[in-house]
Every structure is written in C-alpha cells, then in structure tokens.
Amino acid sequence: MDFISQEIEKSMTLIFSENDKKIKNGIKNLTNLSKKSMTMQDKINLSNGKGIGYYFLEDKRSRKYLQIAKRKDPENKDSLHYLGHVEFNEQNYLKAKEHFQNYLKKNPNDAHILTELGVTHYHLENLIESQKKLEKALEINKDEIEAHHYLAHIFEQKENDSKVIEHYDKILEQGNNDNILMHKAWQHYNMHRVDDATKIIDQLGKKLGKKGNEIHSQIYEIRGNILFGKHEIKKSRENYEQAIIKDRNNYDAKEALAHLEWNWGDGKKALKLFRELKSQEHIEDSTYNEIQQTNHIPRTEEDILKEINRDKIRESQNFELKTTMYCPVRKKESGKYNEKELKAFAEKETIPEVFKTIIAFLNTDGGDLIIGIQELPFKKIYGVEFDFKLIGGNDWDKWNRKTSEMITTQIGYDARKLIDIRPIDYPNEEGNIVTLAWIKVPDGKNSIGYTFDKDGRAFERIGAATFEMTAEKIHNIMMNRNNQNDRNTIYKK
After folding, report:
1. Does residue 491 register a pLDDT over 50?
2. pLDDT tier at 15, thresholds 50, 70, 90
C-alpha cells in the first residue's frame, strides 16, 4: 500500500471513530491530501471519505463529495450507501430508493441495505414492497433490529397483533430495550390484554425507580388508561398527573387528563388544559371547537354544594333534582310517597323517569343529577337513604351497584362507562347527615345516540325539561350527525 492510500485509511479510521473532533481531523487530513497527486481510486476514496465524514457531522457538504465520488464510479458501494442515507434523512425517499436499489444490483444479499430499502418503501407507503425487503433482510441476517421494528409497524397496521408481538420479542432477544418493552406494553393494552400490559409496565417501573424520563412518563400514562377503563377515576387522574410531571411534552397524557377532568372532574381545569394543548398545537381543531361550543362546563363538588345551599335551587338545561332513583312521579304536595307502591315499582325494575334525563343529557351537552332532594318547588333533603329502604339495607355500595346495573341494562354498557356516580354527605333539615347521589353525565356525542334498549326511545334536554324525540327528528339528526354546530346532534362514534 502506497503512502496516499495509507493516509486515506488512517483518516477513515478517525472518521469512523464516532468522535466529532476526530472526524473533523480526518476530514482535514483528507483535504490536505487532495492537493497531492494520486490514482483515480484514491480520489474516489478521498471524496467518499469526506462525504461520509460530513454525513456523520450532519453537514450539507456530504452530498457534494459523495456525488463527486459517484460520478467517477457510478457503482461505488460507499457512494450509493451514504447518498441513500443523505436523501433519506432529508425525506427525499424516491432518490433514496434509487440509490439503495442501485447498490443492491451488485450486492443483492446485503441485509443492512435491504433493510434500509424496506424502511424507505415504508415511508413511501408501499407496505407490500417494504414487507418483502424487510423479510428478505431477516432471511440473510435475523438480527437486523430495524427490520424487526418496521415489520412490527407494518403488522400493526394490518392488525396482525401476534406478528407485532413476535417481532418485538425478536428485538428483545438481542438485549434489554426499554423502548421496545414500552411498545410491547402498548400493544398488549391495545389488544385489551391489560394483565400483560400491567406486568410489563410494573417491570419497567421497578427498573427505572424514580427516574423521570419519557418511558417513565408513558408507564404512568398507560397505567392511567388502564385505571380509567376500570372507572377508577381518582387513581387514573393521579397517574396522568405523574405522566405529565415526568415528561412535560407528553401531550397524550395531558389530553387524556383534560378529557377526564372535563367529564368527571373540574371543568375549569379541563378548559385550561385544552387551551394549553391548543396553543401548543397538540389537539385537533374539531375536538377543541366542540369543547368551546358546549353549553355546559362540568361542575365540581364545590359547585354542586353551592347550588344545593341556595334557598331556591335552579334546575336547568344541565342540572336536575330527583327525590328518588326509583320514583316514577312526584306524589302529593306534601312530598310524601307511598313506600309500598315505590317498593313494588323498584322490584319490577320499571324504567324510572330519571333515566330519561340521563339519556337526554347524553344526547345533548351532559349534566348533573342529584338524587335525594325533593323536586321543586319543594326543597326537602331525603338523601338516598330513602332508596336504601326500597332495595333493602342501608348500603351505598348496594344502591350504586343496582343503579349501575340498571343503567347498563336500560341504556347500555357504553353509557355506564361514561357516567360517574358519587356520594355527597349533606345535612338535612333536622341536622342529620344524609347521603346524596351525584350522577355526573357527560355529553355522549361520540356515540350514535342513547336510547332505552328495550324500545329505542330517545330523549333530549331543552331548558329545564326533558322531551322525547319524534321519529322524524331522530331520523333528521342521524342524517345530519356530522353537523358540529347542532348541539342536539347525536354524534357517531
């Protein structure tokens, strides 16, 4: 090997050192050598060396020197390889594809370049060709991690869940990879394998300890989602909040928290979060506009207590009182009820009037039902203890279960998942503490519409009253369900 070739080789050692200072020195050495007389092959190697060096430094001069080398030798492996990467990084995927294909004409069994070509096809949205190239790369070298990763993405789009997990496992066989473990957890979660997802995030959480990073943030986010699915609102909220603390840029967790607060917590806090997401351009305009257009900001418990404490409670579009969950109508002006008749009514599980209001809230802007306060014009505090007698015992949990079951039976499981039922302790006229039931109903506009399952009757809320929708109106709403400006629209999921 002559002197020039030796010096080029030394410079390339510096360039491949992964140290910016050494890379710059390698480029400097090659620049000095360019002034000397050399063979055509040395000129090609020198241009490639400078092009590769600038590529590692993310310097735009990389393309210039790689193209010089390619002009001198159109089939040069290094030129084609790194020009492909240069074009790929600048999202010039068609040019990148051309370079990788030309490389493979002379080197068809290069697993790495087959992988890069497969990834390029993926970004060109040619999934069939992408899959072919990636699978061929793995036939040659089963350890091509990037090929496994992108095949997982492809099979995810094909909804082939078992293949997604299979490729994640292949990556994990090559060593610990927290990011892939997190991806695997999300995949299990999306497949409704909550136990498997929980096992992984618990494993990751234990490993990371209190360290705050993006993965740790996702652990809290997915745990928040799992708890939300179990309707453990308080714990879900705590996990979303931790997710945001660990990573302020976790906008998915922030949006999840905003929706949680909007439907089950503090409406004002939710609005603040939605505005932040909007200002950061991390929320769909349609979602934000729907929130802004709503007529009802969800109430907090403090808001409910303020309303109850008024001398005259005002029922409204989004607020209603009921003496009992199981009472079909108000009886006498005295506010007294025939307990025998009520019990018979409850046992028959006839649809209570209150369920009409729940449906109406779901079909419009949502609202709050307070059970245990006599309807206007009277204001007598009974509490749901009156209902306890009807179902036997003095047990909030039993009452809650029965009410939940009736919502599920009469309106549907999807409705029950949306509705939050909470107890509120409140003094009655005698100064005794009774339990009021607060049924917090969000708008159900992400559904086709809510009706009684038995007979398909739909209701809407107009002012402080509940009205049954005519068949004609239901039809018109269904035909125009995408009209976001109609707040009485029953929206499609």
Report:
1. no
2. very high
pLDDT at position 478: 59
pLDDT at 426 over 70: yes
301-479: CATH topology: 3.30.950
Element (H, E) at 422: strand 420-427
Report the interhelical angle of 111-123 vs 127-140 (nearest 10°): 160
Listed by start position, the domains of the chain span 176-293, 301-479
- For residue 199, the model assigns a pLDDT of 94
Burial of 77 (0-12, 13-18, 19+ CB in 10 A): middle
Q: Which two tokens stand for residue 323?
A: 């003496």
Using only C-alpha atoms, the chain has a radius of gyration, in whole angstroms, of: 33
In three-state secondary structure terms, 451 is strand
**What DSSP line would sit under 184-219, residue for residue?**
HHHHHHHTT-HHHHHHHHHHHHHHHTT--SHHHHHH
CA distance 164 to 148: 9
Superfamily name and number for 176-293: Tetratricopeptide repeat domain (1.25.40.10)
